[in-house]
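User: I'll paste a sequence; please echo it back and then give the predicted structure.

Assistant: Echoing your sequence first, then the prediction.
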Amino acid sequence: MNALYLAFAYLRYHWARSLVLTLVAALILFVPLATQILLSTSERALVARGNATPLLLGSRGSQLDLTMAALYFSDERPAPIAMREVEDVWDSGLAMPIPIHTAFASGGFRIVGTTLDYFEFRDLIVSEGRGLTVLGDAVVGADVAQALGKGVGDTLVSSPENLFDLDGVYPLEMPIVGVLAQTNSPDDQAVFVDIKTAWVIQGIGHGHEDVVTAAEVAAGSEAVANAAVVQYQRITEENIESFHFHGSQDDFPTSAVIVVPNDTRSGTILKGRYLDSENPTQLIEPAGVIQGLVERIFRIKSLLDVVTTIIAIAAFAAIGLAIFLSYRLRAREIATAVKLGARRGMVLRLLSAETITLLSLSGIIAGIGASVVSRNAEAWVGWLLALGS
């Protein structure tokens, strides 16, 4: 007990040096702990979203690009497929298809055109306002609302993918009618609209002003309709009835389709229908694609673990050298204590108590830091995944 008291008194007297050693040791302990927590949480988050999506239908090409675009709303742009593919899945009676249209953005966040089935499939809950009911409505994720400082009653304006592709694409002002509860998933970083609203943005659907105005009617004049009629940039109660779509809906585009089979047998039958390599569409299992991605990432992780271990050993060696040099500088002090009657065992206990106290404080600080990371890991990982996509 006397050794601990004297050790604490010494460390308190030399508080600056003690603080530096404590913080350095705490950082050395904290970094690998925090890294392991974040990597483990990232792996679980990636695999969980893939496992929660049974099958994914899209254009034939990179399976990873298709998965990232449909599940994480990334910047990858797989070629669109026609809505007739959705109808084919419906008509098969084997699964429920959920179209995903991710061609546009607003305020730096992806606009996701889909159906109401998506909200039920992902268990998304509206925390403020209401869900999608009218053409042009938008429901935003929690992170979108926070980042843009907008909520129910505000509006968002769509933007084209690039400034050199404006043909047929008109900015659409969309009222925010709901804000989703936090899910710590890419859904927090998305703006959800009905897929028909996405087609309006794309120029497939639009509304027209009345070609005969009240003034013209009063004057008895006749107005002639032509292709130059003004297209609306906002859907309102007054003009919503004028909105219509050109062509067959079977030909309208969607980026991908989430396919939810009725059972395992139905899923197997559906997968068999898309095995032909000549088929322009493919049906994939996102879980397998994500698992392959995770395995590649965590091969790199093993190398990072080795590097972290080497750095940690070097850092602890540096701390040990600093403590050793500190003891050498205290040689006269130790010799004086021995001359005053302190046994060498007592001196060793005193030095050991100082070292143990420093390491214990470092461990406590590192543990508190790791606890904070653990409590917020899901939110941080969700934000990083959305940012990376």
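The first strand starts at residue 55 and ends at 59. The radius of gyration is 31 Å.
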